[in-house]
Write a structure and sequence with these properties.
heterodimer, A: mainly alpha, ABC transporter involved in vitamin B12 uptake, BtuC, B: 320 residues, mainly alpha
Chain lengths: 298, 320
Amino acid sequence: MDTGQTFTVAALGSQFLVGLSRAMILFIVSSGMSFVLGVLRVPNVAHGSLYMIGAFAAFSISTLFGGGATGFWLALILAPLVVALVSLIAERSLFCYLYEREHLMLLLFTFALMLILGDLVKMVWGADYRSIMAPELLRGSVNIFDSPFPRYNLFLLIIGPLVGIGLWLFSNKTKVGKIARAAAVDREMVGAIGINVSWVFAFAFVLGCFLAGLGGALVSPTISVTIGMDHDIVIEAFLIVTIGGLGNMWGALVGSLIFGLTQSFGVLFWPQFAIVFPYIAVVIVLTWRPRGMLKSVW
Amino acid sequence: MFRDIFNLKSVGPLVVIFIILLVLPPIIPRFYTYILAVIFVTALLAMSCNMVVGHGGLFQFHHGAFYGVGAYTVALMLTKTSLPLWTGFIAGPIIAALTGLLIGAFCVRLTRLYFGMLQISLGSLIWAIAFRWYSLTGGDDGIHGIPMPPIISSQNSAYYFTLIIMVICLIILYLIFKSPFGATLQAIRDNPERCEAIGINVKRHQLIAIVIATFFAGIAGVLFVVVESSVFPDLLFWVYSLEIFIMCLLGGWFTFAGPILGAAIMISLRTFVGIYTEYWTLILGVVLILLIFFLPEGVWGFIIEKFGRQTKEAVEGGSK
């Protein structure tokens, strides 16, 4: 471990911002997972696959519209909708028949879905690396703390809180959102007052997957889009949701910040083992607070 | 005691199967010998996992970590140290069990999903270390061409070694399954609160079960090295662990022998579907969905239910 070099405040600051923007992507993806977990009480293993589909769909849509600025913005809007459609089909055709069954079976179903979607993506898009250009407006970098910081990451820092606020408004101020939260707490009661719980579940599942797709579309200009990107994100989202408190949206935010920041500071201090740090953070959090940082809805 | 546990009627067919497996290698092509050896290793792994999952009712989501620890231990001891060759074979399971004790001690404080999640996190930690520590573990390439003791270096001798070790382990696992400890474990699975109330130390029993299971996972890891002469970090990855979990469910997780069947089905699927198409995980996913909808008790559970033979002893503890 080479701690011999000194770290300037500038380096720490810019690394902090990098971690923060990474945390925003993680937050968007894991808040979707948290929403599904809160209402359906099942960890959606296929969440990462939907994120991957979001990224690939964003690639295809932006290529279809010439790869320019319009293509990018359209991709950002349409790709999550494509993902939502895929999840709606999976939910209505198969998943909705399993709600009465044992819990582990729901988990297994999502694992099967992950296997199937992973191979379908390979069939449709192949195993090549793809990349998307961000529009002119978001390219290049600005100087913060005397070091260049990519504009796209700034854009992510704006989008993340917007999604958070939108999700909060949705689940606290709209009728559908309130019903979904009620179903999370007591599904029998919600059914008893004449609401079709099955459709509430479908809605929650599709919304969660929409957020996964949005995360995938947003991340696509910063990484190379390829098969296999689903495996890493889903485990990260799992752990974030667990350390935050199952089903708690703000918990997902706290967890994402912990995860994103430990990862980016890990890169600074010990690059070879940077991926180890978030896992250590999770172990510490769960040892200290076995049921997560914030109150879980279960 | 032994007469109660092994009655002749059920042991007979097993002895026949064992003898068939003993005489097979010279007859069948080399490739099939290899596949059978892989099935033995995986079956032992799935059985050890099922001891915690099916009989203990714990969400053992990252069993592959212990398998990988066993495999890496023996691989590192054979390639990096000059200790006598067989010490590595003994160290593998012991280190795996110690890892199991350490991780288990953290995990048993939690329940259900939190248990599984903490275990995935700790297991991923091990994976990340093996994946990144190039100078020791070879990173994502792993270690290949591990020298084996001459006695088991040929393919047929590796086959016999794997078969015999697996059979011994399965007998021990069966004895544990039938012992008072096994019964207590299944009682805890069915109703932890009541067990707590009558004075059973639930956490300690679960921890002991985890240590035993991880010990056998370590043995499976050693056998993997014997068969493949290589290790790679994929063994420790969580996707593989979920595959092990599915083998248990596929075969029938409330039965004793189910996971063997699950492992055999899984390995055969991968091998023979893999010959025709690269999309074998798609097929696996479809099979899994069919299973969820039509055979929730697993294949072996279904057979027992349908044909009723030895129902009482094989699914003791009943469903759920």
